[in-house]
Structure formats: structure tokens, C-alpha cells
Automatic annotation (TrEMBL):
InterPro entries: ADH-like_C, ADH-like_N, ER, GroES-like_sf, NAD(P)-bd_dom_sf, Trans-enoyl_RdTase-like. It comes from the Eukaryota. Residues 37-371 form the Enoyl reductase (ER) domain. SMART domains: PKS_ER. The lineage of its organism: Eukaryota, Amoebozoa, Evosea, Variosea, Cavosteliida. This is Enoyl reductase (ER) domain-containing protein. One of its GO terms (molecular function) is oxidoreductase activity, acting on NAD(P)H. It comes from Planoprotostelium fungivorum.
Length: 380
């Protein structure tokens, strides 16, 4: 019997010739968005990659953008460009890895979402019909969980998990705080900040959210402070006034030079830990009672590879933590305990990726996550 995927190519001989009549799965995907610097183009009729040990192949239904998707191609020229970018996917299992380390948790047809490996090979890119992803960063979608909403979670959610519970060493939802512990989350209406506030409350932490126009996304916080119209000194004073003598943990999800300096001003009062997502400015003075670490979400895949090296106090391998918290997310998402980012669908499927990344680069996205439906891609 000819596979359903091959039937699509009955009038396209070049593609049909590559379809084996007994093949259990697709041989060719029809569209990838290939990125090189600021150039983005759709490449058609690319062989479908095979998942390796401990990997799955996902037929994407919805994929989402992150700011890193435009930054990395411009900032890291040493990587193997041109390449397919993106790392947030949701869809169904098309194949599972076999052999040593074979995947037994999932079967073909299962509904899942996943955080794919970053900036290594096009087969891991999200802006495609099919994406290979590690099994440990893949999680089941329970009944009622939409693909579009699920695609908003993977990278940002895990960044929030690692920032709060690894870098800042705060109590977790598995071992919640038993006494009053405060954490400041700057950029609380960003994708990472939105999840960080929710996770902090699941861990019974007291959360101070710093946000602007979309501050309603941080409504679960104990205190919300609008940064707009405040100088760095005024913002630091406002945060400290919310919980004097109790603030010693701060998650700066924005991580610009100005926000990092403000973070230091806040934490220096009592001493403590700050975690950031981007490198700090070289001229910043860090007091002896303040520790700054970078949260590197690539450590979700284990040691090695881009964005995985952890700074002070970490082994660089958070693969087990990632596996545990992604599977917890399945239930939390389904039960409404952790809510997705608001979804903004960009029309045109993969053909809309260029528009979406331009909006992110121009800082014109606030309070929502850009999502693309693969089925809307022209000629797919």
C-alpha cells in the first residue's frame, strides 16, 4: 500500500520517485524555512530526517518564535549556516528512535510538544514540516490541550524552570517554600517572565513582578510594579519597598545593560543571587555579596552544544530536570495550573516566519507569542 504521504506526490514525479510503496512513513517534507543571517527563504522537497537514539520525529501542527531565532543567525556567524532555526514545536509523533537508547515512551500518532536542540543541524529546526527533537524535552499533550497554545511553552517555560530552581536555587513546586521567600521577576510579561511568575507561585514563593504595558500577564504575582516612568534608582527603591530586608533573589528576563545594573542595585541591599539570560556588560561592578549567573536553557539537553555551558555552581547538565518538569507541565497545562502565553497567529504558516522575526527584531511584539500553523503554508 502506498503511504498517505506518498499519495500527496502522485502528480509530482520527482518526489513520487523517492517514495517506497511499503514505506511506513514520509520520505520527503515539502517545506523548511532556511535562515542565513537576516535572509529567510522556504526550501521545498527536503528529505525527512530520521530520529536517532533517544529522539523523536514530530510532524508539526504549530510552531512558535523566540527572540533568539533572529538574534542567533546574526550574532553567531561561526555556526553552520544556512540552517533551519526555531525550537518550539507541537504536533504528532511521526517516528521514534530505535536501537540503543530507543524511545519507548511515545508511539506514532501521539500528540506532543517539544523543545528541539538549538543551532546544531537543520533537522532540529522548528520552522519546518517535520522536526527531530530529544525525547527528554518532549512532553505529551493531554486531552483539551491545543497545539497552538502548547507551542508557546517549550523554550521559555524551561528557561523559567532553570532560572528559578537551578540558577537561583529557590524552593520548587516539588518541595515548596515553608517560610516566606521572595523573588523579583523583571520582565514578568515576557514569555519567560510569564512562566516564571506562575512557577514561583506553584512553589509557594512570594513574587514581585516588574512589567510595563502587558503587566496583566503577571496577575498572579504578589506585587506588580510598573517600570514605566521610573529611573533605575526609583525602580530599585519601589521594588525594595515591597519587601524590605527580604529580597535576595532576582530573575532578569530582559538582561539589557540597564536592567542588569538595576538588578544589582536591588540585590546589593541584602546580598543574594541574580540570574540573567544574556552576558552582563563588561564594565559592570558586582558587589562581593552578589552572585550573577546566566541561565542557559541549552543545558536541558545535557553537556555540550551551543547555549549549554552553565556558570558558577552548575554541572552543565540539566537533562534530568528538564525531563521531569516537561512531564509535570503536561498535567499543569491540561489542568490550567500553568497557562500558555497568549497566542498571536501569523498568517501564511511557514511563509509568515519572515514577517514574525522582523516584528520581534523591531521590538513590536508585546504580551503574546507568535505562532504559525503549518497547514497554512502555501503549496503544503
Amino acid at each position: 500500500m502506498v503511504s498517505s504521504e506518498c499519495k500527496r506526490y502522485v502528480n509530482r514525479p520527482v518526489l513520487a520517485s523517492h517514495c517506497n510503496a511499503t514505506s511506513p512513513g514520509p520520505r520527503y517534507k515539502r517545506a523548511d524555512v532556511v535562515i542565513h543571517g537576516s535572509s529567510r527563504s522556504i526550501k521545498m522537497s527536503i528529505p525527512v530526517p530520521k530520529p536517532g537514539p533517544n529522539e523523536v520525529l514530530i510532524k508539526n501542527v504549530a510552531v512558535a518564535s523566540n527572540p533568539k531565532d533572529w538574534k542567533v543567525p546574526l550574532w553567531m556567524a561561526e555556526l553552520p549556516w544556512p540552517m533551519v532555526e526555531g525550537n518550539d514545536v507541537a504536533g504528532t509523533i511521526a517516528a521514534v528512535g530505535e536501537g540503543n537508547g530507543g524511545v519507548t515512551e511515545y508511539k506514532v500518532g501521539d500528540r506532543v510538544a517539544s523543545f528541539s536542540r538549538m543551532a546544531i543541524d537543520s533537522k532540529y529546526g522548528a520552522y519546518a514540516e517535520y522536526t527531530v527533537s530529544p525525547a527528554n524535552t518532549t512532553f505529551p499533550l493531554l486531552e483539551g490541550s491545543s497545539f497552538e497554545e502548547a507551542a508557546t511553552f517549550p523554550l521559555a517555560y524551561m528557561t523559567a524552570v532553570l532560572g528559578l530552581f537551578v540558577a537561583l536555587k529557590l524552593p520548587t513546586p516539588l518541595e515548596p517554600a515553608t517560610s516566606e521567600r521572595w523573588v523579583v521577576i523583571n520582565g514578568a510579561s515576557s514569555s519567560v517572565g510569564h512562566f516564571a511568575v506562575q512557577l514561583a507561585k506553584l512553589a509557594h514563593l512570594k513574587a514581585i513582578a516588574v512589567a510595563g504595558a502587558s503587566k496583566e500577564l503577571a496577575s498572579q504575582a504578589d506585587v506588580t510594579i510598573d517600570y514605566r516612568g521610573k529611573s533605575s534608582k526609583e525602580l530599585a527603591s519601589a521594588v525594595l519597598a515591597a519587601a524590605p530586608e527580604k529580597i535576595n533573589s532576582l530573575f532578569d528576563t530582559i538582561s539589557e545593560a540597564g536592567t542588569i545594573r538595576t538588578a544589582v542595585d536591588i540585590v546589593r541591599e541584602n546580598g543574594g543571587r541574580i540570574t540573567i539570560l544574556l552576558p552582563p556588560p563588561e564594565d559592570i561592578e558586582i558587589p562581593s555579596n552578589v552572585t550573577i549567573t546566566r541561565t542557559m536553557v541549552g543545558s536541558s539537553f545535557g553537556k555540550g552544544g551551543p547555549f549549554s555551558d552553565y556558570s558558577e555552581g552548575s554541572s552543565g547538565d540539566n537533562s534530568e530536570i528538564a525531563a521531569r518538569y516537561y512531564r509535570l507541565l503536561s498535567g499543569w497545562f491540561s489542568e490550567g495550573k500553568v497557562k500558555p502565553n497568549p497566542v498571536k497567529i501569523i498568517a501564511g504558516g511557514l511563509a509568515g516566519v519572515d514577517e514574525g522575526l522582523k516584528l520581534l527584531q523591531a521590538n513590536k511584539v508585546s504580551g503574546n507569542k507568535l505562532v504559525y500553523r503549518i497547514a497554512e503554508t502555501p503549496d503544503v
